[in-house]
Write a structure and sequence with these properties.
176 residues, 6 helices
Length: 176
């Protein structure tokens, strides 16, 4: 791992996502924003999660630092966003997502301890996108109370878990 890798564009995007989330979490209440602006902020944070990987591959700037920094940042940012936005969600939603994050962290520790390789799944990217959409729609739903958004949220969580459990299953049962 090289210190200069910090200055690669994908890693700067990842670090920026972390810094912005920490700033919001520690200095700003989500109630200071309109629902529309809050949704835009969440969407930009979510999009930056995908952009860093795309930029890394397009610019051939995949680095060891990035492969470690990105998933750690993803977990930290996601949990901080959930805590920051906790007043917008029912308790079951928060606990369900926290439990899934614990599963993912356990899988990551397993990968480190067993020196296994992990390939990022397109299903995982879709699951993350669905959850970010569900978060944005839930915030929007505080104004409209649409049942279809609740069903979309249930589906998103189900899919998010399915991807995590499939990932853990494949991780444990392959390359033994």
């Amino acid at each position: 791992m090289k210190l200069k890798d910090i200055f690669l564009l994908p890693n700067l995007i990842t670090i920026s996502r972390l810094i912005i989330t920490i700033y919001l979490f520690t200095n700003v209440s989500p109630n200071n924003f309109t629902n529309t602006l809050l949704i835009i902020i969440i969407a930009l944070i979510g999009i930056s999660d995908s952009i860093d990987g795309v930029v890394a591959r397009k610019l051939n700037q995949v680095s060891k630092l990035g492969t470690i920094l990105d998933p750690i940042t993803d977990r930290i940012v996601f949990v901080m966003l959930l805590i920051w936005l906790i007043s917008y969600f029912p308790t079951w939603f928060i606990y369900t997502l926290f439990a899934r994050e614990v599963l993912v962290v356990c899988g990551g520790i397993y990968v480190l301890l067993k020196s296994k390789t992990v390939t990022v799944s397109n299903k995982g990217k879709v699951g993350t996108t669905l959850i970010f959409f569900a978060i944005c729609l839930t915030i929007l739903n505080t104004s409209y109370n649409l049942v279809v958004i609740e069903y979309f949220t249930y589906f998103s969580i189900f899919f998010y878990y399915y991807v995590a459990l499939e990932y853990l299953y494949n991780l444990i049962n392959k390359n033994e």
